[in-house]
Amino acid sequence: MEMLMAVPCVLPEADWLSAEQQLRLLAVASAAAGCVRLVMTDADTAILHGLLARMCASLTYASRPDAAG
C-alpha cells in the first residue's frame, strides 16, 4: 500500500513517461489501492454487490495498452 500511495508523489519525477503513461499509472495505482481498501473495509459487501468486480474491471481497462483513444 505504501508503494501504491507513493505513485502520485513520484509521477512528476517520471519525466521519461509520456503524460498518457503517467495518467494510466496513476489510474492503475489508485484502482489497486481502492480494491485493497474496499476488501479491508467490508469484503462481504464488496463481493456480494459486485463492487470489487467493478473495481477490477476498471483496473483491467486502465492497464490495457489500447485503453486510450
Overview of the structural elements:
The protein has about 70 residues and is mainly alpha-helical. About 75% of the residues lie in helices and about 0% in strands. It contains three helices and no strands. The chain has helices spanning about 1-10, 20-50, 50-65. Helix 1 packs antiparallel against helix 2 and helix 2 packs antiparallel against helix 3 (about 50-65). The longest helix is centred in the middle third of the chain and has 30 residues, at about 20-50. The protein is flat, with a radius of gyration of 13 Å. The mean pLDDT is about 80.
Question: What are its keywords?
Answer:
single chain, mainly alpha, 69 residues
